[in-house]
Amino acid sequence: MRVRSLARDGVLTAVALTIFIVELQIPEIVPVPGVKLGLANIVTVVTMFTLGPGDALAVLLARILLGGLIAGSPAAMIYSLSGGLTAYLVLLLTRKIMTEKQIWVSSVFAALGHNLGQIGAAIAVTGTPSLIYYLPVLAVSGIIAGAFTGLAGQLAVKRLGKALRR
Amino acid sequence: MAKTGTWVIVILVILALSVAASVYLYVPRSAGGRVAKIYVDGELVRSIDLSAVTESERFTVEAGGGVNVILVEPGRIRVESADCPDLVCVRRGWLSDSPAPIVCLPHSLVIELDPGGGIDAEVG
């Protein structure tokens, strides 16, 4: 049983990392730090809503650490960690009050949490409170990106949910 | 379980507020009279009164193990080039009246505008 879930989380992490690296090739549209699709979060959403918080946390942390080693700087990892963990908390808190057809709503709130966590970290690291002015722009992009990744995750839960939970 | 329609309304309200706030933050306030402050790791390294600038100046700031080349012109400032991985600071372009600062997160460098001449500069 343990080997099974280890293998399953490994596969999910590999999927998340692949998506993460593919997304790195997409040029950024808006020159605002933190604006991106965050497609790898589809995997976090799917894992949370099929396997639960434990597996979701494991897959999320493995993806952030490995992704940071492959692609980013230590600085970038602080921001993905702070954003990723806040988003994770929001998913955790909202997952029980959403139906299978409202997974995307959870994802939208998680994306907003991601933005808040990242801005918070950036304010702490740079000591610049005025970075909060980026929040509205990030919220707009977060809602769009969160709805998109959430819908994709919701479809994946519908199609793959049974196979993953087995 | 709330209905999906309720959630859609909640999200649309947040979206509308965010769009309004974004537009408001990017609308120019006062022309000139602003002081650009350059911070590295939260410490002020240089302060430039943009309204007092008469000819363009280019200088380098060392930050976070890299460099940012900063260009100053009368009334405006930008990061011209940098060796950070994402170049968000460069593509942000000119900063002349927006309250949202230029940031280079990899280098922990921030350029923000302080209203020059106290509270009056905020008016009009």
Report what the structure shows.
The complex is a heterodimer of chains A (about 170) and B (about 120). With about 170 residues, chain A is mainly alpha-helical. Chain A is about 75% helix and about 0% strand. Chain A has one domain (about 1-165): Orthogonal Bundle (Arp2/3 complex 21 kDa subunit ARPC3). Chain A has helices at about 1-25, 40-50, 55-70, 75-95, 105-125, 135-165. Chain B has a single domain (about 35-120), classed as N-utilization substance G protein NusG, insert domain (mini-chromosome maintenance (MCM) complex, domain 2), CATH 2.60.320. Chain B contains two helices and seven strands; from the N terminus they run αβββββαββ. In chain B, the strands form two sheets. Chain B has a four-stranded antiparallel beta sheet with strand order 2-1-7-6, with no helix packed on it. Chain B has a three-stranded antiparallel beta sheet with strand order 3-4-5.
Number of strands of chain B: 7
CATH level 3 topology of chain A: Arp2/3 complex 21 kDa subunit ARPC3
The domain tally of chain A reads 1
Oligomeric category = heterodimer
Count of individual helical segments of chain B? 2
Strand order in the largest sheet of chain B? 2-1-7-6
Count of distinct strands of chain A: 0
| Biggest pleated sheet of chain B | 4 strands, antiparallel
**Overall average pLDDT of chain A:** 93
CATH architecture label name of chain B: Sandwich
Helix content of chain A: over 70%
Which regions of chain B are unreliable across 5 or more consecutive residues at pLDDT < 50?
A: 117-124
Order of helices and strands of chain A: HHHHHH
Major β-sheet annotation of chain A: none
CATH topology of chain B: mini-chromosome maintenance (MCM) complex, domain 2
Average of pLDDT of chain B: 85
**How many structural domains in the coordinates of chain B?**
1
Estimate what percentage of residues of chain B fall within beta strands. Answer: 35-45%
